[in-house]
Model the fold of this input.
Amino acid sequence: MVAFWNLQAAFVFIFTPDSFVRAYELSGVAGETAIRGVGVLFLMWNVPYLFALIDPLRYRLALTLSLLMQTTGLLGETYIYCTLPAGHLILSGSILRFIVFDGAGLALLAVSWRVVKYAPA
Done:
């Protein structure tokens, strides 16, 4: 589920960046390019998730790395949110959505990791 969410986010950011530029206080070609770049980062981020999805027992390390990456993303987004100056309501709302999204993903990955941790090799 987390891999699907990440891929979906990547593709909408890459193929419809104009839908998101305002949510990040961006505009024009530069804003669309920045959003597309974030979409590419989502694709890069998703590589270990895909291996973990294919065979979580065989690729336990990929699942562990996915869990660590998700945690890093959640902590980083929380830091960004907490250090954002007042008055950026749309931007803070967009970052808060990522925090919720990645928090849910982290919970799901943690459950998967725990199940795989105790599964026979």
Q: What stands out?
A: Residues 13 and 39 are 5 Å apart (CA to CA). The mean pLDDT is 94. The longest helix spans residues 89-117.
